[in-house]
Amino acid sequence: xxxxxxxxxxxxxxxxxxxxxxxxxxxxxxxxxxxxxxxxxxxxxxxxxxxxxxxxxxxxxxxxxxxxxxxxxxxxxxxxxxxxxxxxxxxxxxxxxxxxxxxxxxxxxxxxxxxxxxxxxxxxxxxxxxxxxxxxxxxxxxxxxxxxxxxxxxxxxxxxxxxxxxxxxxxxxxxxxxxxxxxxxxxxxxxxxxxxxxxxxxxxxxxxxxxxxxxxxxxxxxxxxxxxxxxxxxxxxxxxxxxxxxxxxxxxxxxxxxxxxxxxx
Length: 265
Ligand SMILES: Cc1cc2nc3c(=O)[nH]c(=O)nc-3n(C[C@H](O)[C@H](O)[C@H](O)COP(=O)(O)OP(=O)(O)OC[C@H]3O[C@@H](n4cnc5c(N)ncnc54)[C@H](O)[C@@H]3O)c2cc1C
Fold this sequence. Notes:
Elements: E1 5-7, H1 12-19, E2 25-28, H2 34-39, E3 47-50, E4 60-63, E5 66-70, H3 75-80, H4 82-87, H5 89-96, H6 101-106, H7 109-115, H8 122-128, E6 132-135, E7 139-141, E8 146-148, E9 151-152, E10 160-166, E11 170-177, E12 184-193, E13 196-202, E14 209-210, H9 212-220, H10 245-263
Parallel strand pairs: 1-3, 2-3
Antiparallel strand pairs: 4-5, 5-10, 6-7, 6-10, 8-9, 11-12, 12-13, 13-14
Bound molecules: flavin-adenine dinucleotide.
């Protein structure tokens, strides 16, 4: 690990000030990704700004028909939240299957969404549910937020403060987990809302993506049979020691069908 200056501000304004003008400064939420990255010397931040001292960044509330989850909220708290379970059970279910108990008790929604790991689970929920990401400087719509591999629309020094998820009519998430890490080899979140159907895929490509052909078919007929013959092209999908691009393309249809069946239960 290289040397860096460590800060633990007590307010969001102080955190933003500490980051201002420092291109190589990084915020830290649970450190589940950041700390291993530092240990492996894959990053050399000048400053680490720990958000752990800012109390009002964690918590879950229901505002109208939205569930609003603070950026520092741990996966374990989302998984066990009565509010999340009652308004969007699929989201609680997703959080409950992230990694292992240690990961769920340190990892945060803000860190997961900011990191845009290609195999992370939350990005699929954010995109399928059409969530809004709020930061210290403004708001981002889900579409267009995840730009690519570990890349988002966040500007340097921008801090995620909360993510707001609108209640869907029906929703479910199904993933084929990597047996070691539990990251998604392929995960598909399907959501049916008054505005239509959204299908978001994680794990398969460099970043989360929607499958329009499935969305159109499901808008007409919300059954797993409606998408049984829809395949995503393997051309741009991930291929690694865990699975080929063709295997992942096959899993997208399998997981999407399972998600629709689960949403209809
Ligand atoms: C063994 C293991 C297994 C895992 N399995 C899964 C899995 O199955 N599914 C899954 O989805 N994830 C999985 N994860 C990831 C984990 O769930 C965390 O969400 C992820 O590591 C981010 O951790 P963190 O919240 O502690 O963020 P940190 O590590 O603190 O930060 C991650 C990155 O986001 C930035 N950042 C953090 N917070 C903010 C913020 N509020 N605003 C702006 N930028 C911010 C940081 O600067 C850093 O670049 C796994 C991780 C591990 C170590």
